[in-house]
Amino acid sequence: MKLSELSHVLSEQGFSNRIEGSPDLVVRSANTLEDAQEGEISFLANPKYKNKLTDTRASAVIVSPDETIPDGLTVLRCSNPYGAITATIILVHGYRKHPQWGIDARSCIADSAEIGENANIGPYVTISERTVIGNNATIYPGCFIGDHVTIGDDVILYPNVVIYDKSSIGNRVALHAGTVVGQDGLGYASVDGKWLKIPQIGRVVIDDDVEMGANCALDRATMGETYIGKGTKFSDLVVIGHGTKLGERCMLVAQVGIAGSVDVGNNVTLAGQVGVAGHISIGDDVLVSAKSAVWSSIEKGAHYLGFPATNAYQYRRQAALVQHLPDLRKRLRQLEAEVERLSQRLDESS
Amino acid sequence: MKLSELSHVLSEQGFSNRIEGSPDLVVRSANTLEDAQEGEISFLANPKYKNKLTDTRASAVIVSPDETIPDGLTVLRCSNPYGAITATIILVHGYRKHPQWGIDARSCIADSAEIGENANIGPYVTISERTVIGNNATIYPGCFIGDHVTIGDDVILYPNVVIYDKSSIGNRVALHAGTVVGQDGLGYASVDGKWLKIPQIGRVVIDDDVEMGANCALDRATMGETYIGKGTKFSDLVVIGHGTKLGERCMLVAQVGIAGSVDVGNNVTLAGQVGVAGHISIGDDVLVSAKSAVWSSIEKGAHYLGFPATNAYQYRRQAALVQHLPDLRKRLRQLEAEVERLSQRLDESS
Amino acid sequence: MKLSELSHVLSEQGFSNRIEGSPDLVVRSANTLEDAQEGEISFLANPKYKNKLTDTRASAVIVSPDETIPDGLTVLRCSNPYGAITATIILVHGYRKHPQWGIDARSCIADSAEIGENANIGPYVTISERTVIGNNATIYPGCFIGDHVTIGDDVILYPNVVIYDKSSIGNRVALHAGTVVGQDGLGYASVDGKWLKIPQIGRVVIDDDVEMGANCALDRATMGETYIGKGTKFSDLVVIGHGTKLGERCMLVAQVGIAGSVDVGNNVTLAGQVGVAGHISIGDDVLVSAKSAVWSSIEKGAHYLGFPATNAYQYRRQAALVQHLPDLRKRLRQLEAEVERLSQRLDESS
With an 8 Å Cβ cutoff, are B144 and C177 in contact? Predict the structure, then answer.
């Protein structure tokens, strides 16, 4: 694809842009500034990597409108370089092409299950009684889907995904390998000094356009629903406790854990390894920085950080003061000595 | 089931109780205060949710003997509302009904394996040589059980559980999907600047009545045993290092990690994301709060918290002082100025 | 095997040693000091367990040259007891003997896949189009290997391992059960207030002699490669973000998470539950203590610790001062009172 053609298509998609350099050069694929070779297009979105513009072998680079560039480098200027490179990758590479199994004879589908049109179901898949799956499902080998599950259209389940009974999965949901939906959470009542298991009669509901990484685990609700809102995305090894409800377009980075009965708003970002205690609420548009421990509710729009998590500005101020503790102690000692001296002078002068 | 009948059965089970309101109303199912509809029974155990009593549409609610309730609400008073709702759910709903496979022809069971009576083994299950499984086993699709494994009666292995060779699993154990038992831990000796793998010749022993969540991982011992005591419960993504031994009735919340060669007593609770360093011991009845880092042994009955974990009372005191650091610094500055003024006055007066 | 024979073989392997006690006693197996029985050999490497020498029933113990020992205990003295016990275990027990499947008829191997000699492939394994696997592969049941994957010689994939399309795996790599290689990372561009998925066109490359624990997850690169260097070892539930590159002989303990685009040097040790933020670099020979939060780059050879991670010496100093905060506040209060008294005395004297 010629750069001029790419520029034209990107404009049509809403990424207005202009070329500086050779519009006729041919773009075969996309790559990072570091790894790109001739014939590849790259991008600069994070100013931290600005110095890589000098050394890149990419034939063209997508940059922001006011970026300064080395002489001779062909660039495509656009106000959203990250969006534009994404559109470019979609144009040039497209999304993953899945193996085509049709409905593999080595799968095991219950008679009472209903499968939509155009199903692509690999070997060693189990689909249980009274489960309903929409159109265009891609289900990789080794997946297990329990009884009474409902799955929408255009869903992708990667290998060895497990969906427990009664779960509900929306349209265009993608779950990566090893993710488990709907297992029993820690639900026990203490009776006569023993743990009596509480039957976990609730379920998990995952709404449309959710994607989750590998080896996540979502507890079914004890009663009622564990719920994941539209367009929310998880990275790998995320754990969601029973009865927790997440809003729309949240982003949960790897190894985040949310305990049970938590209410999370829309557009919430929890960075890697964040932990959230049970029975609290997190408002819309909240950002919690990596590895923070959230022990109490967070108001709408706040940026939290720390152990325990607190307002990020306050936390940074406290953390800076902790680093100055050796200095504070030294000043306290000097002051003690000075006060002692003053006291002696006063004694002498009186 | 009529409320009066439920009340009677609960009493027989040791949950003495009395009804305030309509004994004749019919209870069809159980639900949370928030989600309950007419015909459903709910409960109040956490006083935090007290205000939900006013809005609930539940037909009846199980509450503690001295709880104040809105006018017109039918309640069943019991000194252990959580135990009573559990008994109610068991009565009304029962535990999960598993699919019935018999021994599915698409499973792969070694000739030398011994399977007890009434086995329920799904497709795509592998059971290897000289493995012995007790009566009433439910083994979901995709499970792998290695050589020389011993499994007791009434065990449930959910989909894609993996049990490595030589492991021993007690009676009434339930392992949720994706959990792995007995893989090699990090065992290498540094020889000539390289890591030489140590054959991991030990095993994992899980005692009776243990339940584990999804995607956990328990290392086999290098030599000897990794051991999980009777009635201990894990949530999801818990990791246990090689040679670690846990006592009875412990509760490990999601994403807890315990390193190798740790001795944990009975009735220990480790909250979510707690980490425990290797080669230490944790006494009976210890509670460690969420996300704490345990770097040294903890005495019986203690409540620990923090990074590193310390006595919870001391930790909270320190944490409060850290929050007051800006104030402490301000007071130090004022004192420095005041001492400077005093010093000048003394200079002038002398 | 007689102790004298063992001593001889160990010497030949470079572990020079000498016996104190009965060279003729027979060693049948190896065990811990605690669990060893007659006929078993044990070792003492960690001085913390020195007192267990007194009570052990082991017939012989490998100890360091200058260790003091109880009367009557037969020992084999060696400067590297951990290396010598490893060599002993290899001699006496050897490594795991895998089940022998040949190429099981219940596996599903694409016509265009190439499998090397002496393959040992269990039931329910899927190997997809144009994938190439070297000699002596052991692939346990339930593994899935996608299209265009390259795998070297002498590789072991334990049950339910998933390798996504285009990944490359070196020689002598072992991946434990449930580990996932090459799933899509969190790659979305914000376009018009929605998350637009970026096709993840990169891949994962794992070099020779890498071993990983159970239920790990390695994101494929968005573009280019996620890379794991030769001889690097992971414990369980480790997560590696997209585009991150690890050097040789690193050791990542359980539940470590590294975000995307991180450069890690050689011989780096990250202890359990350590988190590393994205777009930073960690030098060779770095050690980060358990549960630390690494938010910025770390220079070669450093030992880091804390939340956020900082130089371990500085961190310990700060942590000690935080513990002394109650004392510092008390001294500040006394000083305030003393200055107030001085001020009054000065008022009175003037």
Answer: yes
Contact check, Cβ <8 Å, C224/A319: no
Chain A partners (3+ C-beta pairs within 8 A):
B, C
Query: Is the minimum CB–CB distance between A315 and chain C shorter than 8 Å?
Result: no
pTM (2 decimals)?
0.96
Task: Report whether A287 contacts A301 (CB < 8 A).
Answer: no
CATH topology of domain C3-92: 3.40.1390
State how far residue A68 is from chain B, nearest Cα, in angstroms: 42
Q: Is C83–B196 a contact, with Cβ atoms under 8 angstroms apart?
A: yes
Q: Can you say whether the dihedral through the CA atoms of B2, B3, B9, B12 is positive or negative?
A: negative
Banded model confidence at residue A346, pLDDT cuts 50, 70, 90? confident
Q: Please count the other Cβ atoms lying within 10 Å of the Cβ belonging to residue C70.
A: 11
For helices A325-349 and B325-349, give the axis angle rounded to 10 degrees: 30
- CA-CA-CA-CA torsion sign (A118, A122, A128, A129): positive
Positions of C marked active-site:
242
* Inter-chain residue contact A177 with C195, CB threshold 8 Å: no
The verdict on A37 touching C (C-beta cutoff 8 Å) is no
Q: Are A248 and A265 in contact (CB under 8 A)?
A: no
C81 touches chain B (CB under 8 A): no
In the stretch 167-206 of chain B, residues with CB closer than 8 A to chain A read: 176-178
Burial of A333 (0-12, 13-18, 19+ CB in 10 A): exposed
* Residue whose entry in the numeric block shows the structure tokens 């891949």: C203
Q: Tell me what ipTM this predicted complex has.
A: 0.95
B147, B130 Cβ separation under 8 angstroms: yes
- A 135-154: CB under 8 A from B: 142, 144, 146-147
A48: which residues sit within 8 A by CB, 6+ positions away? Answer: C279
C-alpha angle with apex A255: A252 to A261, nearest 5 degrees? 65
Any idea which residue has 């991150």 for tokens?
A: C244
Reply yes or no on whether A93 is catalytic.
Answer: no
State whether residue B50 sits within 8 Å of chain A by CB. Answer: no
- Per-residue pLDDT 10s for chain C (350 aa) are 899 999 999 999 999 999 999 999 999 999 999 999 999 999 998 888 999 999 999 999 999 999 999 999 999 999 999 999 999 999 999 999 999 999 999 999 999 999 999 999 999 999 999 999 999 999 999 999 999 999 999 999 999 999 999 999 999 999 999 999 999 999 999 888 888 999 999 999 999 999 999 999 999 999 999 999 999 999 999 999 999 999 999 999 999 999 999 999 999 999 999 999 999 999 999 999 999 999 999 999 999 999 999 999 999 988 888 888 889 999 999 999 998 988 888 888 76
Superfamily of domain C161-307: Hexapeptide repeat proteins (2.160.10.10)
Whether B86 and chain A come into contact, CB under 8 Å, resolves to yes
DSSP string, C106-133: TSEE-TT-EE-TT-EE-TT-EE-TT-EE
CA gap B235, C47 in Å, rounded: 35
Are B290 and A277 inside 8 Å of each other by CB? yes
Which are the contacts of C239, defined by CB distance < 8 A and separation ≥ 6? A235, A236, A237, A254, A255, C216, C217, C218, C219, C256, C257, C258
Strands C17-20 and C75-78: antiparallel
Q: Establish if C313 touches chain A: CB-CB under 8 angstroms.
A: no
